[in-house]
Amino acid sequence: MTQLFVTHLPYSGNPPLADTARPGNGLLVDTCLRRVWIGAAAPDSEQLSGTEVYAGRAAFQFLLEFISGLHSAIPGETNVLGQFRQTWFRWRASYPAQASQLASIVEQLLQDARRIRARHLQGIGGISYGSLVRRLIQPASEDRILFVGAGELARSVWPFFRQFSTALWNHRPTETLSVEWLENFAPGDGDRAARWARHVILTTPPNPANDARWRRWLEAAAPASVTHLGHRRAGSFQINSADRCHCLDDLFALRRSQDNVRSLQIEHARNACAEHAASRYAGGYSAAKRARA
């Protein structure tokens, strides 16, 4: 197989607002918990500070565990797989020459992840971001729920609220999604959207400009609850007029209190990731994880 190198930077708090890596050098995947760089050549020295570094078989195994949701705070969730695929498609379109060096590896990763999920992680989705948010905010049947952002995360959470009155606001028009929502607010109608909703779920990443305008709109609207899935720490997105404010850490704490995650399934999935990595790199080179710089 093509040579494979990965750097992994876990976040202890909210992710930084910008990355310093040159995007043409490799595929960069940012989630709320970590930053992962993937390349066909060894990373530059400036990319190594504070990171974990993997190569060969170890890199493939880490990526397979990562996109299968095994490193997520909610083990086995599917959001990171969708995020990885969307990031890969965008990067491939922007840097086709560089992407061609990783195309076969990404194809094998996605193929193996599908197999692992089908064989070991079916039915584990009883705990997901959507189910946890619903348990957290506990909306009444007549409540109106607004989603801010129209990305992969919003699409995965919305089905858990399909029986409620829901609406969508996005920073740019999203006409193609209008059939999924009771109302599709225009980008300029954020204040009206905030007043319409009793519960607001922000699925956008931390962004000073977007967070500032939504703080302003929500403080005036005084909703029952505000949940920001782009912030991890309590108080990082606080709306004083809201009855309740939630962040990712609240979801993770709720997940830990549940008994539905099947630990044996997770262990079998991890073992399968190791087996697939060994199979893909049979007879090839492998480098174990290096200590953080």
Q: What is the terminal-to-terminal distance?
A: 27 Å
Number of helices: 10
What's the overall geometry?
globular
| Widest sheet, order of strands | 7-6-5-8-9-10
Estimate what percentage of residues fall within beta strands.
15-25%
Counting structural domains, the number is 2
Q: Provide the succession of SSEs.
A: EEEEHHHHHEHEEHEHEEHHE
Largest sheet: 6 strands, parallel
According to DSSP, the number of beta strands is 11
Q: In terms of topology, how is this protein built?
A:
Blueprint: E1 5-10, E2 27-30, E3 34-39, E4 52-55, H1 56-67, H2 79-94, H3 96-100, H4 103-120, H5 129-137, E5 144-148, H6 152-157, E6 165-169, E7 183-185, H7 190-196, E8 199-202, H8 208-221, E9 225-228, E10 244-246, H9 248-256, H10 263-280, E11 286-290
Helix pairs in contact: 1-4, 1-10, 4-10, 5-9, 7-8
Structural commentary:
The protein is built from ten helices and eleven strands. The chain has 293 residues and is of the alpha/beta class. The chain folds into two domains: 5-125 and 262-290, Beta Polymerase, domain 2 (2-Layer Sandwich); 129-256, 3-Layer(aba) Sandwich (Rossmann fold), CATH 3.40.50. A six-stranded parallel beta sheet has the order 7-6-5-8-9-10, sandwiched between helices. Strands 2-3-1-4-11 form a five-stranded antiparallel beta sheet. α6 (152-157) links the parallel β5 (144-148) and β6. α1 (56-67) runs antiparallel to α10, α4 runs antiparallel to α10 (263-280) and α7 crosses α8 (208-221). The model has no long low-confidence stretch (mean pLDDT 85).
